[in-house]
Write a structure and sequence with these properties.
One of its GO terms (molecular function) is serine-type carboxypeptidase activity. This protein has 15 helices and 14 strands. It is an alpha/beta fold and about 475 residues long. Bound molecules: 2-acetamido-2-deoxy-beta-D-glucopyranose (3 copies). The site of one 2-acetamido-2-deoxy-beta-D-glucopyranose has 7 residues, from helix 5 and helix 7.
Length: about 475
């Protein structure tokens, strides 16, 4: 009797131990990626994680992520994946540290970002494809030619394996967001998720100043530059009739730049001047970057605290050994972390794949789509994007459900917006860059919050009569 009881006890205990072991194994999958404290960060109450997800075991190809859980109540908030463009630029360097992550680097420390997107969501930043940032392929041949299809496939594999590490997020409302060449990555990944029939709870996508249609987007640049006074009438004329921008880019990608196109572009660049940030034509430039003497000049914050040198600060920060150790990051086959990849050869032909129709198919599948434009960007100007979305709505037979009008943040106009069929929206962000949250963080956060909630953008409150200045 005693003996039997003893054996039963041992068996029960063994089972309990096994169960504890299994549970803690699942837990420890993500625990291993837990960040205790980023060097120089202020104290915070939310959890942060960073590390690698191997997307191809044979080729040892691994993608690096940074995950900032929501500041408060993470279990009730959605999961948002963010993808920067390039192709070849880092979502952690640009998205997290220059745009809408919880911290911005400043000297040796990190300062809190009052408009961080993790106030509204659990934010997952992914460096993709391999070759970008800390993401790598042990077989370097991978870098020789990467295209949209490979990127989307790896991004999907990443998400699947990431959910194994973070199973509590598997059924969570999922939004995929990004900007610029994210106009390819974001809808292509969303469509692949739908096609693969994997049960992610994908609710919507949002893309800022996205590349959606090569000719349309690139050629809207000329008018933007001209109307903002950056190029002369004569130069506008040759930039539209002699050689336009899509032609110039096509020639330069294929290594067959003609003297005619090269002449037009030289004139355009000369008039714009190198002291203009073409990603925000009204913003001052970071002089250390422009003059390549980073250490000698102090930062010059402009426009109510926009640190135009934040990118330089980020590069410095992410190249610190203590920072890399804390992030569980490695430099595989690289000497330095760079904001945009030096090793990746992206298939430039893919820039010409139109993705505006992918947006259409997503809308038809019931996925909410927001396309927004920082209105001071000359690289993918709002005018071209607005025209495309308007055309798409017509093509889909979506009626305007909210006519073109100003939206507000605080007591000021934050931009203009139009909604089609309550599922497709276009919005501008007034005074914002190509990387809208970088120069208009507060307006961008309001837009983000309303998008996640599926609510209309704020309208004018009961404002007192606004006295206009007379000339
Ligand atoms: C490395 O990658 C290239 C291209 O993807 C492939 O053809 C080659 O077989 C790979 N090499 C090894 C050793 O796996
Ligand atoms: C400008 O771009 C369009 C679209 O790519 C092209 O069809 C056209 O030939 C170009 N025109 C000139 C004058 O460069
Ligand atoms: C769109 O508007 C047209 C004209 O007002 C109307 O006939 C049509 O039913 C509307 N379509 C939808 C889907 O509401």
């Amino acid at each position: 009797m005693m003996e039997t009881q003893k054996w039963v006890n041992i068996i029960v205990i063994t089972h309990v131990l096994m169960i504890i072991h299994i549970v803690s194994a699942a837990k420890s999958l993500s625990e291993a990626d837990r960040i205790v404290n980023l060097p120089g960060q202020p104290p915070v109450s939310f959890h942060q994680y960073a590390g690698y997800i191997v997307v191809d075991e044979n080729q040892q190809r691994a993608l690096f992520y940074y995950f900032a859980e929501a500041e408060t109540d993470p279990t009730s908030k959605p999961l948002v994946l963010w993808l920067n463009g390039g192709p070849g630029c880092s979502s952690i360097g640009a998205g997290a540290f220059c745009e809408h992550g919880p911290f911005k680097p400043s000297g040796d420390i990190l300062v809190s970002n009052a408009y961080s997107w993790n106030k509204r969501a659990n934010m997952l930043y992914l460096e993709s494809p391999a070759g970008v940032g800390f993401s790598y392929s042990a077989n370097k041949s991978f870098y020789a030619s990467v295209n949209d299809e490979m990127t989307a496939r790896d991004n999907l594999a990443f998400l699947q394996k990431w959910f194994t590490k973070f199973p509590e997020y598997k059924g969570r409302d999922l939004f995929i967001t990004g900007e610029s060449y994210g106009g390819h990555y974001v809808p292509q990944l969303a469509e692949l998720i739908i096609q693969s029939k994997i049960k992610f709870n994908l609710k919507g996508i949002a893309i800022g100043n996205p590349l959606l249609e090569f000719n349309n987007d690139l050629n809207s640049r000329a008018e933007f530059l001209w109307s903002h006074g950056l190029i002369s009438d004569a130069t506008f004329e040759i930039f539209t009739s002699v050689c336009n921008f899509s032609q110039y880019r096509r020639e330069s990608f294929s290594g067959s730049l003609t003297p005619v196109c090269s002449g037009v572009m030289n004139q355009v660049s000369k008039e714009i001047s190198k002291f203009i940030d073409v990603y925000d034509v009204t913003l001052d430039v970071c002089l250390p970057s422009v003059l390549a003497q980073s250490e000698t000049l102090k930062n010059m914050p402009t426009r109510e605290g926009v640190d135009v040198c934040v990118e330089d600060e980020t590069v410095k920060y992410l190249n610190r050994k203590d920072v890399q150790d804390t992030l569980h990051a490695q430099l595989v086959g690289l000497n330095r972390w760079t904001i945009c990849s030096d090793v990746l050869k992206y298939e430039m032909q893919d820039l010409e794949i139109p993705t505006v129709h992918v947006l259409g198919r997503l809308v038809r599948s019931g996925i909410r789509v927001l396309v927004y434009s920082g209105d001071q960007d000359s690289v993918v100007p709002l005018t071209g994007t607005r025209r495309l979305i308007n055309g798409l709505a017509k093509e889909l037979g979506l009626n305007t459900t909210s006519p073109y009008k100003a939206w507000f943040e605080g007591k000021q106009v934050a931009g203009w917006t139009q909604v089609y069929g309550d599922i497709l929206s276009f919005a501008t962000i007034r005074g914002a860059a190509h990387e809208a949250p970088f120069s208009q963080p507060e307006r961008s956060l309001v837009l983000f919050e309303r998008f996640l909630a599926g609510k209309p953008l704020p309208e004018a409150e009961d404002l007192p009569f606004v006295k206009q200045m007379h000339p």
